Amino acid sequence: MRDEKGKGLSNNETDGRPGAATGTRTSSSLTGADLHLTLGGNPVLRGVDIHVDAGRTTTVIGPSGSGKSTLLRVLNRLHEPDSGDVLIDGVSVLGEDPDRLRQRIGMVFQHFNLFPHMSVLDNIALGPRKLRGLSRDAARAVALEQLETVGLAARADTRPANLSGGQQQRVAIARALAMKPELMLFDEATSALDPELVKGVLALMTDLASGGMTMIVVTHEMGFARSVSDSVMFMDQGKLVESGSPEKIFDDAQTPRLRQFLSQVL
Ligand SMILES: Nc1ncnc2c1ncn2[C@@H]1O[C@H](COP(=O)(O)OP(=O)(O)O)[C@@H](O)[C@H]1O
Ligand SMILES: [Mg+2]
User: Alpha helices, DSSP H only, in the chain?
Assistant: First the structure.
């Protein structure tokens, strides 16, 4: 585990309990093996391999259109791959019920997609109630616990529109965590946020990583990729071009394509 992990949240709204971000949840490894997918005649994934060990964080970087979002969607089976396999703890999940699988894999998107007519607490309690079959009271208790984890317990009864974008994204993360996922996928979770709101969300993601959550994080935040992730994958044109430790990727890029990308984003 990298040095920067274990620092905990710098966000003073959060209660700071050790491991508060993950509770007693177990985390699992995730593997995508030789994934291929063509969409609308477009070969979007052209044999991608990705692996993240249990409790580790892999970031995926690469230019727009390189297939990063599609890769996450295939790992979560929002798209079925044309070929290849997706495995949790070494066991293929392509035969598993997709709804059940999505309870095991939490996903956070660029746009938070909270229900505007429901309170923050009810947004989070909905999944545990409908999908995990918890009673109304038990689901609300789980939701409140997760709101505490993301530092927003005091805002439980407000509507999402009364929160900043950063706070809404933290609610969306709490909503995913309330399903007690074994691992989490983040697709540009901070890209839609005003710059001053990015830090709080990244701090929460850092806390989750240090708490032992398995995470695959698609991001343009190179500081996060360098300091928080255990490994970095660079994708281009539907392929994994280069992967390795953050030091290797950022300080010792091997391919001209990665060097060019880094020169544009750093
Ligand atoms: N449903 C679709 N039909 C056709 N092409 C698609 C579809 N979804 C994505 N693509 C194409 O796949 C490529 C990769 O998209 P995406 O995974 O969103 O890339 P990224 O997240 O890296 O920006 C793009 O060229 C995009 O236009
Ligand atoms: Mg994308």
Answer: 68-75, 98-104, 120-130, 136-149, 165-177, 195-210, 222-228, 246-251, 256-265
**Which of 35, 45, 70 for mutating ligand 1's site (highest number of atoms within 8 Å of CB)?**
70
Any domain includes 19: no
- Residue 28 clears pLDDT 50, i.e. is over it: yes
**What pLDDT score was predicted for residue 21?**
43
Is position 210 within any domain?
yes
pTM: 0.91
* CA gap 233, 45 in Å, rounded: 14
Range of the domain at 163: 30-263
Q: Which of 35, 44, 111, 218 to mutate to test the pocket of ligand 1 (most atoms within 8 A of CB)?
A: 44
Closest Cα to atom 1 of ligand 1: 39
Indicate which ligand has the atom closest to the C-alpha of 70.
1
- 1 is a domain residue: no
Which ligand is in closest contact with the Cα of 187? 2
Give yes or no for residue 169 CB within 6 A of ligand 1. no
For residue 65 and ligand 1, the question of a CB distance below 6 A is answered with yes
Q: Give the domain CATH number at 46.
A: 3.40.50.300
CB of 38 within 6 A of ligand 1: the answer is no
Say if residues 73 and 81 touch (Cβ distance below 8 Å): no
Residue 250 CA, chain-centre distance (Å), reads: 21
Residue 18 lies in a domain: no
